[in-house]
Amino acid sequence: MNICFLGGSFDPPHLGHLAIAKECLKKFDKFIFLPSKQSPHKPVSPFFDSKHRLKMLEIITSDLENIEIEKFEIKSSSKVSFTVDSVEYLTKKYHKCNLYMIIGSDLINNLSNWKDWNKIKEKVNVVCFKRLGYENNIVKRDNVIYLESVKVNVSSSLIKKEMLSNSSYSFTNFSNMISKEIYDYILLNNLCRISE
Hints:
By secondary structure, the chain is α/β, with parallel strands linked by helices. It has helices at residues 15-24, 50-61, 72-75, 83-93, 117-123, 156-165, 180-188, and strands spanning 2-8, 30-35, 67-69, 98-104, 125-131, 144-152. It has seven helices and six strands, in the order E-H-E-H-E-H-H-E-H-E-E-H-H.
């Protein structure tokens, strides 16, 4: 079985994450979302609490088959989530499977700076999707699979910035970034300053 996984804060999960999952499910047997507790690459903790980020991931994947949300990093006693720890966990859990790690083109040039990168690349294959603004500076690697069909032009930080900088927004302002279900969930739970 070929399994791919995408790590990140998913703060909140957006249409780009969903597009990646759907495209990967055309090529792999299973897709795993791997939400982090605290990324070592980000100085600030996620804006949304982990229980809400998990719930939002459940919402956007509810009608898709062969998708799993792995809570390993969220449940970990470690304050910071390191990819190498998750890779070792997934390798043991799916020891008879081929693992593929999904990353954006914004990260492809810095892999050698990741903690225990040599261990990671021995255990997983790398799949890279395009992120807006990072298409032209990719150092092509022979051992990387490139998802040419996916181009993500939205980010969770942009969504939060838009939500926090405006006191009155309708879903129309976010329809190209997040699903209506995620918008409604954020509104219903009063997680951000959004009003109709």
